[in-house]
Amino acid sequence: MTIIATILDIISIFFLVVGLIFLCLGMLGLLRLPDVYNRLHATTKVATLGALGVLASIIIQEGYTPMGVKALTVAIFIMLTAPISGHMIGKAAYHSGVKLCEGTCLDEYGPEHGPKSVPKSVPKNGSKSVPKRQK
Amino acid sequence: MIITLEQADFLALVVMVVALVPSTYRVLYGPTLPDRIAASDAVGNVLAMIFALYAFQGRSIFLMDVAMLLSVISFVGTVIVAKYIDTGEVL
Question: Is the pLDDT of residue A127 over 60?
Fold first, then answer.
């Protein structure tokens, strides 16, 4: 009996550490990445993987109790809604004219769907006109 | 050195509260408006996780309701402000 409890503790702490690592990496990306879209790429990881790691540790510790069921509900809700909010922010940012960062070489959403303020360095059809590296 | 489970949860709470600092910086000094919205979404999610872990540590069922409500309010606020930026009207 105590062996099973110890194994569950170890699995729970493993999930907690995975969630905290993803949370810290997401916050680092939010601080350091150059663009709105790259920062969205980081914050969605905070919302999905970090939160799911922390909640999975709680679920494993609790089991079938009211607190565990509530944690499972929060986990399912976050897993369903985090990609929706990420896509909404990205679409709103593109439509409101936030420019891409300078290292961008492909814009698949296209200038015809976006506003007029899409930077001119974005090629129209992707892989042919990607700027070649000299030297 | 052996860490008990409660000390591990306390360390996790400390790490989460420290991880709130860069996203708060991005909310305050973000260059554009979608930056601030994305950062406030991340703040809401991390606050929900803090409440969930504190409810688990303190053995209180009702704080888990606070975590659920915070995640719901964060999602709805993010979607509404993103739609306002996109189309210029809320509904």
Answer: no
- Are B61 and A70 a contacting pair at CB < 8 A? yes
pLDDT, one tens digit per residue, over A38-96 is 999 988 888 888 999 999 999 998 889 999 999 999 999 999 999 999 999 998 998 88
Domain span holding position A106: 101-135
**Alpha-carbon gap, residue B70 to B38, rounded angstroms:** 16
A32 and A85 housed in the same domain:
yes
Same domain, A31 and A87: yes
Interface pTM (ipTM) of the complex? 0.88
Do A122 and A63 reside in the same domain of the chain? no
Pairwise CA distance, residues A42 & A21, whole Å: 13
Q: Are residues A77 and A53 in the same domain?
A: yes
Query: In the A/B pair of chains, how many CB contacts fall below 8 A?
Result: 140
Averaged over A99-111, what is the pLDDT? Answer: 77
Find the closest chain B residue to A84 by CA distance.
B79
User: Hey, are the CB atoms on B65 and A70 less than 8 Å from each other?
Assistant: yes
Residues of A in contact with B5 (CB under 8 A): 9, 12-13, 61
Coarse DSSP helix, strand, coil percentages of chain B, rounded to the nearest 5 percent: 85, 0, 15
